[in-house]
Predict the structure.
Amino acid sequence: MRVIAHLRARADTAYDNTYHHKLRGRIWNALDGTEYDEIHDEDRPKGFTYSNPFPPGDMREGDERTLLVASPHEELLANVAADLKDDRELNIGEMPFHVDSVNGLATDVGEPETSGTLETGTGVLVRIPPWRFEEYGIDTNHDEAEFWRPQHTMEPFRNQIENNLDKKHDLFCPDYLPGPSETDGDLFDGADLIKTFSIPVTVTQGQRETWVLSKWRFDYTVRDDHHRRHLNLALDTGIGERNSLGFGFVNITEKEDQRSGRKERVDA
């Protein structure tokens, strides 16, 4: 489930790639006083993620941008939507916007036998814990978690993504349903690395770090209803870590029903 907000720039402005902390603050403000506010300080996936204001790029006054917020919790999204409607002034870092419209948006990877492509709209954060360095053949001179990079190979990336999605499945799906690691088959048919990059991130007020992130294109074919649920969970919560800072946001870019041959381009 998603909320889609159509934005309009209120002034000429440079695009702020360090928007994450400010946008997260607006979402938490929207959840103030709700049951979701209680998880703010808990060390666990929060159950929401969001896109960047896209398309990225410097803006002139009146330029349009789009923002998506995703969550498996319909009520959480309703609170975010109500906040954006009540206060149409949205300042994301140094980028001032007016919220023109807010709507709900349903997303679904499709029924079994549907094939498609997912693309990460924001960078994916994957960190390899030090107790797995030896298993993956990582030789380093520190004992802190290691940011995933292409030289670490795909195995740790896939494992960390699956382990992380398992945690979210335990939190947000019924206990009697199997999680990603409890079913046969991989989450994705294939993974195309688009790029790796590093950016400064304000983790909390006054704490700024440089993180290494990656962007991906994933192919999938829905095997069964369990696999469909796992892929849709990735759409609702993001993949990798720190999704409530806006990392690991995933979009469907195309899908095809193999039974009917019907193809569909998807923009969000």
